[in-house]
Please model this.
Amino acid sequence: MLDSREPRLPGMSEPTERSVGTTIIEAFAWVAVVVILVAYALVSFDQLESDGIPFQLMNLIGAAGIATISFVRRVFQPTVLNATWAVIALVAIVRIAL
Model:
């Protein structure tokens, strides 16, 4: 159990133990952060083309992971941002593939 003496903002619920599912989502989100940062770095240093499927797949995976953990934690600004980012990446993949 988490320490109930941790300071919390007004309206925050009591801390609870993490489930295996939450831990898996958390791990996926960290992988997603790394994937999206690597994609950005590779394009920025001319190691990957921004109009290619690999870059767009990395954006899709990264944005989906961040959107998922944001939604689970009920933080909706990054959920909307990253869900939109994922849709843009998906549309780009379809356009490139056609």
Q: What stands out?
A: The CA atoms of residues 36 and 59 lie 6 Å apart. Residues 20-44 form the longest helix (25 residues).
